[in-house]
Write a structure and sequence with these properties.
The protein has 156 residues and is an alpha+beta fold. The protein is built from 4 helices and 3 strands. A 3-stranded antiparallel beta sheet has the order 1-2-3. The longest helix is centred in the first third of the chain and has 17 residues. 17% of the residues are buried.
């Protein structure tokens, strides 16, 4: 962890990551780094657990709760632990009128800040593991086989 990253900048970065994750086709990694950063902030007492909210997006048609966490002036939801259900107050439904302060931080910059904070290193992919797609069928190309422009056919 680098101490030169301020809590305010981290909160802005988490806001940007969360905003992009909501519309990303593959949001899993973004949510993972958000969760990891928030857990680290909680451990370092730089974030505070507020309470539990009912989720707006129930899983498999069953109601579930999310943990509301405050980082600087921003609020985020992460999955709660069993201990959270025992110790924290349930706040009911999500307040739809509240919005986090808007910030404009590019996703690349936000990820860089959070990666630096959580000490995340990208996994090195082994070149032998990445397979290129090859079809089982050979389709010969007709490019270069024809005369262009076509010439008049010769009649004898």
């Amino acid at each position: 962890m680098s101490d030169d990253v301020s809590v305010h900048k981290l909160a802005q970065a988490l806001f940007s990551i969360n905003k992009h994750a909501k519309t990303a086709p593959e949001p899993k990694h973004l949510y993972q780094i958000k969760k990891k950063a928030i857990h680290q902030l909680l451990k370092e007492k730089k974030a505070r657990k507020i309470g539990l909210h009912f989720s707006d997006h129930p899983k498999l048609s069953s109601q579930h709760s999310t943990l509301l966490v405050k980082v600087d002036h921003y609020f985020f939801h992460i999955p709660p632990t069993k201990e959270d259900f025992k110790t924290l107050e349930h706040l009911g439904s999500l307040d739809q009128t509240y919005r986090n302060p808007h910030t404009k931080m590019p996703l690349s910059q936000a990820k860089k800040l959070v990666y630096q904070y959580i000490g995340w290193k990208p996994e090195k992919k082994n070149p032998s593991q990445t397979r290129r797609y090859q079809s089982n069928y050979y389709t010969p190309s007709s490019l270069g086989k024809m005369e262009w422009p076509p010439t008049k056919s010769k009649r004898f």
